[in-house]
Amino acid sequence: KLVFAEGIGDSMAPTITSNDLLLIDRSQESLTMGDQIWACSFGGVGMVKRLRPRPDGSVAILSDNPNVPDDRAVDEELFLIGRVVAKVSKL
Q: Which of 16, 26, 81, 89 can bridge 1 by disulfide, Cβ–Cβ 3.0-4.6 Å?
C-alpha cells in the first residue's frame, strides 16, 4: 500500500517543494497523532498538508509555508488518502 506522488506548489515549502517525490503509506487511514503530513482530499480537492486534530472534533489543515493561511475541516469534509512517510528531493 505504498505509492509515490509528486509534490506540486509551494504551500508546504520548505518541507516539501514542487517536484519532490513523496512516498505515501495508504495503509495509514486514521488520524491518531497531530502534526503529521498527510495526502488528503478537502472539499474534493487533493492536497498534502500537516493535520492536527482539534478538541472540538474538527481538524486543523496546516501549511508549512507561513504565507498560506490555515484551514479547518469539520464533519466529513476531509478524506485521508495516506500518510506521507518520506520524500526524495532533487539536488
A: 26
